[in-house]
Input
Amino acid sequence: MRVAGNVTLRPILLAAASGVLVGVTFSPHGGPVLPFLAFAPLAFALRSCSQSFAPGFVTATLAHGIGLYWMVPALSWRTALAVPVYLLVLVMIGIVAGAATTGAVNLHRGRRWPLPLSLAMCWTGLEWTAAHVPGVSYAWLNAGGSLAWYPPAAAGAELLGARVLTVWTVACGAVIAGALQGGWVAKGGWAVKGGRAAKSGWGEWSRGTLGRALLLAGLLGVPLALGGVRQRGLTSLAVEDPLLRVAMVQAGHGRVVAGDEGGDRPEAAEGVERWIEPLRALRETEPFDIAVFPERHVAAALRDAASGAVSATGREAAGLATALGAPMLLGALDGQVADAGTDTLWYNAAFALRPDGTLSRAYRKRRLVPGLEAAGLVGDPFGARNRGYAAGREGLPLAAGGNSVGAMVCYDSAYGETARALVRAGAEWLAVLSNDDWLDPDLPLRVTWAYWQHATHGRLRAIENRIGLVQVASTGYTFTVTPAGTGTESLLEPGAEGIAVAGIGDRAATTLFTRVGDVLGLACFVVFVAGLFTRSGGSGNLPAPATRH
Output
């Protein structure tokens, strides 16, 4: 709207509205409808003004500011830089988002791409870009990801990954914005004919509105209908006849010692030993095939960093698997002497401990949290407590209990490619080991949406690959997900100590995403970049006279 004083304010307010709506979808309260509405104000702003960068910046900064609010209470106890780092993350995301909306508008105005298509692809390209920046890759939240809690709506993720949900929800929001803008223009009695504003009749308005309504119905209805059909076909994958039964040990806050980089310390295995008798007693009434412990439950290396031989800690831990009479999946440390022999690289790792007293090779965490576990591009703002962690290179499953498990460590589960690599390598089920020592139900403001958000990633990984998944966290959420994407929010109360036993469903047929990977994200990145280098050809909006409001 070309009214003095409103040229800048109106699109910013619309973008802020989208930011708030998107931010709420990153919470347990977003529901299945809001993701489809959240981008409508942003799209309306881009259609109705000459600005393109600022609306994207505002939307992303507000959305992720709301979604990541937990960074401040969760990390302030570690460092005084929690707030500056939080603000830096938001600014970086906002800049890339502003570039994404600029590219979308350029394609819309310069190449005549429909705005729902250009905005959906460029916004998805933004998410792909954020997840692939060396050293500070960020894949924690994606638009539409909350649909993972509504499996029929998220079924499309098995085709081309969770990016499908971003493209889908953003496009629907932009179509809604087009319909709303059409109605607003028609109410004022104006439309565009031959590049000029002219009076429009009711017939023209109704035809345009009907077309948008049919398009929106198709965009929403067809995927939901197909997802419902697919969901019914997956009911046979329920856990009445499970692949195996898993005992998940939620150790509670303070039971995991984080950041102590040690090697030959047999006493470090005491945190496992205290659970052996409860597990043995439970196995008498609720049989299980494997016990899973959280990330870094043993804060010592199970193998010697120089020779690769089993350390004293490793022998002690493996002996506990023998005492239990069942294999265990355990979070611990792994070390490796660097090539020059002057330094040791430490890895956040997972091991399978077998009843015969042997130890598997390590799965080394591949995705490190920037700043907290890895220095990234901005140094190490959290001090030397975890300095020295290196990223693992191999994505291979571990053999445990007659099955192959794809172990992931905490932040790994935010990346679809990490789970996909494990499944392609033969994993029959997935396990996420997490040490949520930055969450503590006993302290003010430390029970946050981060619990729910982390659980969302687990559901997306299960749906993408149609595979059973468990997550075991020191303070929660601890849960299972069936290959159909169903499962309870958490089997144990956050912060509680306890053991939950549940079955893991057998893996479904290999999905298209497992076969081809994140080709949609890469394609959207290419479109995003192309949009930045496309010359905008005009305003691309429906003008109205200044006297019409």
Observations:
- The radius of gyration is 25 Å.
